[in-house]
Amino acid sequence: MSNKIDAPINDIVTAIVASYRQDEYLIKVDAKNQISKESIIDILERLRSLIYIGFFTQKPLKFDSIEYYVGEQVEDLAYNLQKQIRLALRHRNPEGDWAKEAAWVTRQFLSRLPAIRSILATDVEASYEGDPAASDKDEIILSYPGIHAITVNRLAHELYLLGVPLIPRMMTEHAHSLTGIDIHPGATIGHHFFIDHGTGLVIGETTVIGNYVKIYQGVTLGALSTRGGHLLDGVKRHPTIESHVTIYAGASILGGSTIIGEGVVIGSNAFITTSIPERTKVSVKNTDLRLMTDKSQADAEFLQDEFWDYSI
Amino acid sequence: MSNKIDAPINDIVTAIVASYRQDEYLIKVDAKNQISKESIIDILERLRSLIYIGFFTQKPLKFDSIEYYVGEQVEDLAYNLQKQIRLALRHRNPEGDWAKEAAWVTRQFLSRLPAIRSILATDVEASYEGDPAASDKDEIILSYPGIHAITVNRLAHELYLLGVPLIPRMMTEHAHSLTGIDIHPGATIGHHFFIDHGTGLVIGETTVIGNYVKIYQGVTLGALSTRGGHLLDGVKRHPTIESHVTIYAGASILGGSTIIGEGVVIGSNAFITTSIPERTKVSVKNTDLRLMTDKSQADAEFLQDEFWDYSI
Amino acid sequence: MSNKIDAPINDIVTAIVASYRQDEYLIKVDAKNQISKESIIDILERLRSLIYIGFFTQKPLKFDSIEYYVGEQVEDLAYNLQKQIRLALRHRNPEGDWAKEAAWVTRQFLSRLPAIRSILATDVEASYEGDPAASDKDEIILSYPGIHAITVNRLAHELYLLGVPLIPRMMTEHAHSLTGIDIHPGATIGHHFFIDHGTGLVIGETTVIGNYVKIYQGVTLGALSTRGGHLLDGVKRHPTIESHVTIYAGASILGGSTIIGEGVVIGSNAFITTSIPERTKVSVKNTDLRLMTDKSQADAEFLQDEFWDYSI
């Protein structure tokens, strides 16, 4: 024990260290280097800078010399990503070195970047077409949380497909923290995807989404029940959304065999657990409202600051 | 190509650079300096420090000498803000220099700060009056997300009114990221505005809100449909909320001609697309609940971890 | 006035300083050191590193020498926390020194860390058992927002119980900002608590939650009305949730005398203001949907991009 620690703190330190002998899965000691969250976030920032080139870099870039800049960035990125992937693979299986596998996965991933850029371009386009409040595409790239979330998701999804543990979810949870949009890296999402506002949106692991789909804040694409726990690993638990579907705010669509057909429009707050045929519009029929317009009574309650009587 | 890049990475770099010749609106090269998100965030932090003077500065301030501190802060702020506004104006119209316009706009904006402080003081007051959990006004200023969001919104709204492109939305989306509260800088909001909890709140661009309005988490003040896309630019698409209205959690109020009259109380989860006369209370009438209290059956299901049968 | 400030800025500075003579509760000058938000965040990071030892530290730790690391961390932590607690106590009552009280509270708090670790271990376990998408417990500790939120809450709750002003709420609002999960530090929460997704979850100050409770995104455990304002200080305004209860997404449970009995399952979007007996399943019965399947009409509307007619 360091003699810098005075007596009263000493017993606290001893008690904390003693607690490390319990709840073993909360400790990560006597292990080699751990995956670094900071590193994962830095990798995401660099990837975003490469995709939306010039938008998130402070110094002005020239097209003539851009290969030098990109080369340097990709080199750093490849080095860091490969290191984290190696740690993630070793995390899943501590036997073995995984350096070669990590190098191969990193290479595969980076070679997908141009294709990821192309599909993200369709998402930016869909965001511009779908939102009257968007003044131009630059505003969307610079500030829209939906574009941030789908950018991170498309990157994380590639790593997920390549079988990388831990990192894809760390990436999407970082985006979730910044945007309130929670898309599992396993979800499969078509082109021209538009999320408006987005806070509270949840898209589960086995969700499949077609092209030209538009989703608002507070929507859940979820499982009907997760009471089966890990028996449900790998089972399709989340819905399929076909192309040209619009899902308004607060709607929930649940279940692995629920299919929302092409061109369907789902109204706000709809709660759906069965398939909907194509080109159907679905709205909540009877959320009847109770209006209390007896002014003398309402006034009295208002002025007396009385209890607000919910009708349920 | 830098010779630091080894062969395997080289072709990835070439492919990425080639991809920059497509999807041109994802690239920002051969351009002059770009608007800096970091700079916008720094400007917001400095504005907040000036408004709630002493709350967000580490060194203790003395009233006698406060002009020196404020002078230095405003000087730095004016310099940085003017630069970003100039970049934003040039972004909208690359012809011209915009230095003079940027200087004028910056000056107009900064001269509104005392008025912005005064109205924010009413918001802090309303937050204190409305929330039994608030221990004092300092707690509100230091920690309430609603105050953070409305502070940023009132600042961004002034820049929006002054016709500054991009920056107002970058500011409010930064606040959205930190608070889950998404208020478009175009929204017009009266004094004594109180947001409680706030996560998931969406307030659209053309919303007009009176005085003493109180709004809870998950509320949407939105458009009925955005399928008109950019044909709807400038059209009033979002509701008008008159003074002394309370809107409980999860309610949606949609449409540009929807007017919620003075003193109305909107109950949780109400979905409203028509105007409501003044001093009315609106609640959702018939979200009838199905209670399954057959204990033997419920027990069996509970113990067997069976599928939970949603009633829909 | 500094002569570095040119004339046009000078009058703006004067106006801002003049505004400090109004709205006095927005200013914090002529005061001693203020509580530092940065310091509170740093304290939270250090606490998290100690609890999930090795997960959030960059250098690999060895069990043999871990006391040195923990000792150094606890020493720094105790110093900083004691300082902030002293500032918080002086904030509430500027008379007196509070150094001794702050030292005692800090010591009490730090000695609770092993117990806090034990209960958080049950939360990690419950998260793993409840979520088929969780690949292992490390993924949960490294990336799940629910675990982040409950970790901060259990720490803040101890400080709340010890009567520390301001700091507990600053801690939970920081977690709210990162996770979208808003748990008041006053809430009492049992072991094996599992939050899935979590965005938009609100748990009020006087809520009491049993063991093995599972809550999804968008749930509100709230007050029926807060129109009584500070007359309601200390009154139980939020519900009691007994053990083994599951609350699905978007449900609201309101009121201080509302008790949700053991083993109850609350379906999505249920709105509950009365007690529910044990082992009952509650679901929303009649959110009937209106399906418009007349294809010719639906097609026409779809193609013409017409107004979407909400059924309300």
Task: Give a concise summary.
Chain A is an alpha/beta fold. Helix content of chain A is 43%, strand content 12%.
Radius of gyration of chain A: 25 Å
Q: How many helical stretches of chain A?
A: 9
Percent of residues in helices of chain A comes to: 40-55%
- The CATH superfamily of the largest domain in chain A turns out to be serine acetyltransferase, domain 1
The biggest sheet of chain A, with number of strands, parallel, antiparallel or mixed sense and barrel status, is: 5 strands, parallel
Mean pLDDT of chain A: 87
The oligomeric status of these chains comes to: homotrimer
> What is the total tally of β strands of chain A?
15
Query: What's the level 1 CATH class of the largest domain in chain A?
Result: Mainly Alpha
- What portion of the residues of chain A fall into strands of 2 or more residues? 5-15%
- Tell me the overall shape of chain A: globular
Low-confidence stretches of chain A: 1-5, 296-312
Q: Largest protein interface?
A: B-C, 88 and 92 residues
